[in-house]
Design brief:
With about 140 residues, this protein is of the alpha+beta class. It has helices spanning about 30-50, 130-140, and strands at about 10-15, 55-70, 75-85, 90-100, 105-115.
Length: about 140
């Protein structure tokens, strides 16, 4: 993959931990998903005031995936990049990338959130303030 951290409107550096490594000496695949989930929900909390425990409208993961290109392991800092690939009426598709400490793309991820009514769990439009915040991550990508 040729992506760089500059391709993403939001990035954050995370320190790896000894417990993140698997028996082969590199980050366990589940750690990539944890980092992606933390990046998305941390960004939403900081930039869209999303409170998943108290909102009337919440997001649920409808799809996630990861492609691996290079090994990363402890001790290393990694950078996670986040952008919006598609912004629908009740769903958002995120693209993510994890970069090693030399800015080499080690993995790319895809994450789909569907916004639902917290009580009925039925899809509902993305709240206007959340949509406005997500536009920052959408950049030049298509929005519907």
């Amino acid at each position: 993959m040729s992506a760089t951290p500059e391709d993403f409107p939001a990035t954050r550096v995370y320190a790896t931990r000894w417990t993140d490594n698997d028996m082969y000496g590199h980050l366990n695949n589940a750690v990539y998903y944890q980092l992606f989930d933390t990046m998305i929900n941390g960004w939403l909390a900081a930039n869209a005031a999303v409170d998943p425990a108290a909102g009337e409208v919440v997001n649920v993961v409808a799809e996630s995936g990861c492609r691996f290109f290079a090994e990363v392991g402890f001790p290393a800092d990694v950078t996670v990049g986040l952008r919006v690939a598609r912004l629908g009426s009740s769903s958002v598709t995120y693209e993510l990338a994890l970069f090693d400490d030399e800015a080499v793309c080690a993995a790319e991820g895809k994450w789909v959130h569907v916004y639902v009514d917290a009580r009925t769990r039925r899809p509902t439009p993305i709240p206007a303030d959340v949509r406005e915040a997500l536009q920052v991550l959408a950049g030049a990508t298509r929005s519907e």
